[in-house]
Write a structure and sequence with these properties.
Layout lengths: L2 H9 L3 H17 L2 H15 L6 H7 L5
């Protein structure tokens, strides 16, 4: 399937499926990024050491609550 066909198919998806597709594509980009993998490794090390945050703090950090 060509990029043009993928784009055309994406425009025909319902809104929720387009959002899921967008999130999936962003995740693929992050996973392939060395800096993202390094950041996640650091975060996991911190969590393993007991350095955790509350759900509210997590949501604030990722921008759900400002």
């Amino acid at each position: 399937m060509s990029l043009a066909e993928l784009k055309r198919s994406a425009t025909e998806l319902p809104e929720q499926e387009r959002r899921e597709l967008a999130a999936y594509l962003l995740q693929i980009g992050r996973e392939r990024s060395d800096s993202w993998r390094e950041e996640m490794s650091l975060r996991m090390t911190e969590m393993d050491a007991g350095e955790k945050v509350t759900q509210a703090e997590f949501e604030r950090r990722i921008g759900l609550h400002r």
